[in-house]
Design goal:
This protein is mainly β and about 180 residues long. It has 2 domains: about 130 residues, Ribonuclease Z/Hydroxyacylglutathione hydrolase-like (Metallo-beta-lactamase, Chain A); about 45 residues, no CATH class. The protein contains 1 helix and 15 strands. A 6-stranded mixed beta sheet has the order 1-2-3-4-5-6, with helices on one face. A 5-stranded mixed beta sheet has the order 7-8-9-10-11, with no helix packed on it. The longest helix has 8 residues. The C terminus is likely disordered. The protein binds zinc ion. Zinc ion (ZN) binds next to loops. The site of zinc ion (ZN) has 6 residues, from loops.
Amino acid sequence: MNVLQFTDSGIYCPAGDFYIDPWKPVTKAVITHAHSDHARPGNQQYLCHEHSVPLLQLRLGQDITVQGVKYGETTLINGVQVQFYPAGHMIGSAQIKVTVGGQSWVVSGDYKTENDGISEAFEPVKCHVFITESTFGLPIYTGHHNNNSFRISANGAQPICAPEKTVCCWLIVLAKHNAFFTT
Ligand SMILES: [Zn+2]
């Protein structure tokens, strides 16, 4: 049984009739986090972590219909169990766990396993199927997160210029991604 499936509108749960981070307008959108490539305008209802609510309202309008939930809290959508777990990517970011008939599938959204001290730390979630985001899995990106150095080669940016200094670069804040650089 497929708890989730990929469609033209996004990742869809047929049992619950909702989408996760849909890229076309739908009736029910479950949102992993507030970046613009995950939380798009035009959906009739939004469900997200409670800390993402003001960000979605800021970006998509105060008049959107949005419900916020806490990490670990269980929400039922048409009888399907939906839970949010920390993804460590940005404030309010979440992995979405969907359980149907004893089968649990998790959609990671963007996530980061290092604790940045700002986002809630990433939490591994037991599941039968894990659907992972892999934006920076492309070979154009190189990174060494464990020693706090990171280089983006996609646009030739080389922010490493001041030894022993910590540089904080907010890349396309609330649009795509943020990261810390240490030189
Ligand atoms: Zn993101």
